[in-house]
Each structure stands twice: as structure tokens, then as C-alpha cells.
Amino acid sequence: MTGIRLSSLNSGYHSSSDSWQQFLSCWLKKQDELSSDFNFIKLNNVPDEDKIPANHIEQWKYVAVAIPKSLSDFYRAYFSLGGEFLSISDKEEVGIYSPDEVLHLRDFDPELLASYQLFPIESEDEQYYRYGIAQDGSDGRYSYVKEAIVLGKYGYSSYELILMYPSSRTEDGEVEVAILSHAYEYRTPSFAEMMRQLSMLFLSDPELLPPYSQQVLKGTCADIIKPKDAWWE
Fold first, then answer.
1. pLDDT means per 10 residues in the chain (233 residues)?
2. Residue 188 parent element (H or E)
3. How far apart are CA 51 and CA 100, in angstroms?
4. Cα separation, 167 vs 123, whole angstroms
5. What's the rounded Cα separation, in Å, for the pair 103 and 143?
6. Could you tell me the sign of the dihedral formed by the alpha carbons of 192, 196, 201, 205, in that order?
7. pTM tops 0.90
8. Cα separation of 156 and 90, whole Å?
């Protein structure tokens, strides 16, 4: 789909924290079967449900941006499973940063942001608003990157970040999420879709980074939180 802004499209997200628990449990089971040291999802002791910090699920401490539903549902499920978050000081591991430590990219890594400013890309709508396998990883928008929020890391290199672009939202309030690699950016219309993609990355040991088509994700753990009426392939 080209020439249409994300703000006029629905993300298709219709899951709940219960669905996320099932998705994460499936991921953990498959992860254990692989016996891999490259684990994105990690567990600590399961906390008391009454002690799950609701304020961490609804609003970040250092970022004045509302948390979209797919991410708040993930936080709630991950807390309830005893999920282990990364500390913001840990930039050499993979995982999701603790919600009470989430920062803007400009505060997290000002040097990385400055490198984007040297050769700023500002793709036109027709090129930028493509998702799934139709997306070109060389497209991007510095105007979005400079306001980006760092959610986590999917690789060990300092630039292999998971970013959320609060300036780019769907009609139903989800927020565009991207992963960065060297001279490459892959974007999804929601945090949920990015986690579906990352589950494939970590569980199938593929040679290539996302995108994986909706057909490839079919029948995997990703199906548990699949979008309704996905308009991207």
C-alpha cells in the first residue's frame, strides 16, 4: 500500500495482556527448546499480581508520551510472568528496557542521533509508508528519529536498537516502531507487529533480519497476537 499516511490506517491490533502472556509463554517454550544463549525474553521470579506497578504500564517516568495499548499490554503480561528487563545502563545485551528507565534517543545516545543528523533522510510519503515485505530499508525520516524513544535492543551492537516514533501513529492510536541496523531500518505500524517479527528472528535463527511475510509468520507463536485484517504482506 503506497501513498497513504499511517495516520489514516488501522494497525489491526486487537489483542490483550492475556494474549501476550500466551505469546510470551510460547516464545519461552520455543526458546528453551533451542537452548540458545541469544535470548531476548528472560524471566526472574514471578511477582505478586497486586505488586505490578500500574504507573509503569500507563506512563513512562522520563518520557511524556502516552504508551500505546500494544506496549502497555506487553508490559502488563511481562511483569505478570516475572519478565526480566534490561537496565538503561546495559547497552551490550538484548531485550526490552525497564519502563521506568525508558529514554528518548537524544538522551540515550546523543552521538548516534548526531550521526543521523550528518546525512538526514526525509523520504516522501509514497516511499516511507510501506510496510511488510514491500518496505525499502533505506527509507527513513530524520524528523521521526530525532524524537524517537528507545524501547530496547535486539542485537549486541550499540546501534541495534528498537525505537518508537511518537510522531507516526495509526488511526487507532498505535505507534510506529523501528529496528536499526547498519544502513538499514525496518519499521512496523505497531509494537505488537515488531514483536511478532522479533519472535521469528530469535526463534528460527534466520540468516536475514526482518521483514518476514505474514505467510511466513503463519503457524508460529506470532499467530497468537496476529493483527486483524493486516493490509501489509
1. 78 97 96 86 71 64 94 94 91 91 96 92 92 93 96 94 97 97 91 97 83 96 97 95
2. strand 184-188
3. 15
4. 15
5. 17
6. positive
7. yes
8. 10
Identity at 216, one-letter amino acid code: V
CA 21 to chain centroid: 16
Q: Amino acid identity of 168?
A: S
Determine the Cα–Cα distance for residues 208 and 220; give it in Å rounded to an integer. Answer: 17
Nearest alpha carbon to residue 195 among 20, 11, 63, 28: 20
Look up residue 8 and give its DSSP letter.
G
For residue 141 the three cell numbers come to 525520516
Q: Tell me the residue type at 33.
A: E
Which amino acid, residue 61? K
Between CA 41 and CA 28 the distance in angstroms is 7
